[in-house]
Amino acid sequence: MDFRFPLRPGRRVLLSTAAALAVLVGAGTWTAVASDGQPAVHHEQRTMSVDGAKIDTSYFTAGGGDSEGKRPAVLLGHGFGGSKNDVKAQAEDLARKGYAVLTWSARGFGRSTGEVGLNDPDREVKDVSKMIDWLAGRPEVRLDAAGDPRVGVSGSSYGGAISLLAAGHDKRVDAVAPQITYWNLADALFPDGVFKKLWAGIFINTGGGCEKFEKQLCEMYERVAVAGKPDAAARDLLEARSPSAVGDRIKVPALIVQGQSDSLFPLGQADAMAKAIGDNGTPVAVDWISGGHDGGSRETARVEGRITHWFDRYLKDDKGADTGPAFRVTRTGGVDSTNGSAQLRGASSDSYPGLESDGKALKLGGKREQTFANPAGAAPPAISAVPGVGALSQLSGLGVGLSLDFPGQNARFETAPLTSDLRVTGSPTVKARVKSDGDDAVLFAKVYDVSADGSQQVLPSQLVAPIRVAGSGAKDGATVDLTLPAIDREVRAGHRLRVVLATTDLGYASPVDPAKYTVSLEGDAALTVPTAPGTTTQATPLPWWVWGLPAAGLAVAVVLLLTARRRTLAPAPDPTLAEVPLEITDLTKRYAKSADRYAVRDLSFRVEKGQVLGLLGPNGAGKTTTLRMLMGLIRPDSGEIRVFGQAIRPGSPVLSRVGSFVEGAGFLPHLTGRANLDLYWQATGRPTEDSHIEDALKIAGLGDASPSSQLRSSGGDPIDRAVRTYSQGMRQRLAIAQAMLGMPDLLILDEPTNGLDPPQIREMRDVMTKYAAGGRTVIVSSHLLAEVEQTCTHLVVMDRGRLMQAGPVAEITGGDDTLLVTVDGDLTEAVAGKVAALPGIVSAVRTEEGLLVRLDGASPSALIGELVRLDVPLTGVGPNRRLEDAFLTLIGGSA
To answer: What is the per-residue pLDDT for 724?
Structure first.
């Protein structure tokens, strides 16, 4: 059956009856929940069968509806990779406000079966029509006609798209409220013919891996990922599953909520959505929220309240409901000094201005024609948005710029300093001529806000617009109208706008062949910026200094952080140490604000290839401080650290040969383990083939060859599951695998067995041994002495910042200078004290086995004589063979 066309009333009755009697599997489960005196919410769970797929649904009702007990219905969809549980709170709230609410987990997510079809009209959209059939059969649901319930649809991202598609394919939908979603998925993932590779990869991995998708979708992704650019078949496939394919049939009131911090579905998607639906003659409102897929505030309470009012007006026919302005945009009004969060204000207009309203031309200066390079392999890439790292886009809203462009890989043009404040609302445009020595030219256009003194540039919301330039290889090149990312930003007087056209970007695939590009500005060489003059901002609720001072403090802190990390001139390499993984000489680090208290003092030791070195010491011994200095995270007060002959400074190139796991690792919980590792490696800017990710996974026990039965029994390959499902042991393994990416010559692990059970500890021991077996070096800091004794070949023992002893494990545990004295009965502290005071004795420490005595000049025979003289009831004197005992002896003798 084709659900693109409306059904006759008689047939709808048959379908609703069939849905009520045959489509549902099982009797369902009802629960009722009361909340703070509000009506109890009844919650029914059922499984719906559609064409062989099992769709897990939940149905919420509360109260009594209208005078006849009837109420409109609302369908709530969830985001990609989520489930119906993500919208439970909103469903309960809508139920209390007089709606019958149905939520569901889309195919392939939650407990629903079937393959992920990216909102395929013959699958996911058909599922929604079946649910509308079922709602039509509910006695408490208000009907417009037989088989036609009064129903609205809302959802975020994936769920937002399904609301639009449902309205386009099923005329029974009466209102929609999509949030941060796409209008044309092909345009979103292939903007202007450029492959958005990072977000596409996250899509696949969040969906559970390629095998969870329909076969043709998986094949399409793999084909495009290998080619580095989309083909016509890929575009056609995604466009057929996009709301734009049925845009002329969406004729219901639409509240469109889109995110400003969103490099996945930017504001241009909402703009196309609003124009197409508005052209159908139906009410449309547009709301630009602060956050989005790149992070930031989703303004959940305000947005959900507005959605409720929207449905009150168009589902309940409440003409007094406040649906809000035709256009609203959230603007940052500084920082709240009480909690450090951004203060948000709304600006609104009686009509939607679009992205190109009332353009103001700003003359661009600089060298008229500029030539720059596309580097071989498109590396290193410029950095704008990094999917999942939402802090970047949020910092840009506070005036902190963290983007990166490499010299020689971009052209730049600037306006003169502005004579007055300028609010940019929409997409700036500029016309340029592009010439290249190849047929395939790709540029990444962005506009920066540059401070008055030129010391700082901010990329608003970290957004960039990719452009594929056709005909650039012709003799005269090609003229192109560049549309820059849509933003809402106030540029202060004295600031300048800088247009940058770069050849690479971390989030996108660009040509890998080296090429030269030449760009010149056309026409009057002007940047046209939209201003939306009819959009007015709410008054600032607090004086400027309430948010200005914290914002200034944040800006100063970030500037200090960035400048403090600049590289300093390092000593020349020592060629005699080129094959030595690590040599530390007279390393010293004092505690902050202290002249005579040391975290590390005069520390010296050397580590050779193939060693597994255990760094031991009690809490406060200085182990982690030493490792942090080794990684260049903090600076020593004096002394030197050399790795393969290179002196260590923050950002030293030789650190690329070092992998580390120090003080834990942070992962994005909604991504799979593999996606986290891929994202981490991509951020390094190094070639993908150099990551050796499969080798790292195999050694860490997370790949196909993992020996861990626990991992296998948990279902599926763990590396392809979301990190939020990982146990502590699996997270430790993932952190170790991350440290091993690139197969570094020196691997540093700080307490790698924390949180692991005995079998996992044994497997971690194998991980370290295997890694060093190939001639690499491992340094491990641990409190588990028994494990260190079984794993490590060499030891460095520290106490109170000083080196107590260094050498092979066998030498330290079994040296002639440490003896175990056993006695008949108990040894008193007084006797231990007398032994420790003897000449030639360093220390005497009581243990459960006896008395550990460390010699310094005294012979074993002399010791026995003195013990007899002291009337100690001896039963034996012999060399100590346990690391724990040797360790206690060493730190017991420290000053």
So the answer is: 84
Pair 342, 467 in one domain: no
In 402-454, the DSSP E strands lie at 410-415, 422-426, 429-436, 441-450
At 603-645, the pLDDT tens digits run 999 999 888 888 888 887 888 888 888 888 888 989 999 999 9
CATH of the domain at 167: 3.40.50.1820
H helix count then E strand count, the chain: 23, 41
Secondary structure class of 314 (helix, strand, coil): helix
496 vs 452: CA distance, rounded Å: 7
Phi, psi of 265 (to 5 degrees): -120, 85
Cα 644 from Cα 607, distance rounded (Å): 10
Cα(776)–Cα(779) distance, rounded to whole angstroms? 10
pTM for the predicted model, two decimal places = 0.61
Which DSSP category does 20 fall into? I
Cα separation, 213 vs 720, in Å, equals 14
How is residue 507 written in tokens?
Answer: 């989030």
What type of residue sits at position 878? G
Could you give the CA distance from residue 685 to residue 505 in angstroms, rounded to a whole number?
A: 10
Assigned domain for 715 exists: yes
My answer on whether 754 and 797 are in the same domain is: yes
Question: Would you put residue 272 in left (φ > 0), alpha (ψ -120 to 50) or beta?
Answer: alpha
Residue type, 141: V
Q: What is the pLDDT of residues 498-547, one digit of tens each?
A: 999 999 999 999 999 999 999 999 888 999 999 999 888 765 454 544 44
Which residues 6+ apart lie within 8 Å of 35 measured at CB? 41, 92, 96
Residue with tokens 């945009």: 329
The boundaries of the domain holding residue 391 are 360-529
Cα(344)–Cα(260) distance, rounded to whole angstroms? 13
Q: What is the C-alpha to C-alpha distance for residues 696 and 738, in angstroms, rounded to an integer?
A: 8
| Helix 215-227 vs helix 197-206: crossing angle, to nearest 10 | 150
Among candidates 346, 304, 341, which has minimal Cα distance to 179?
304
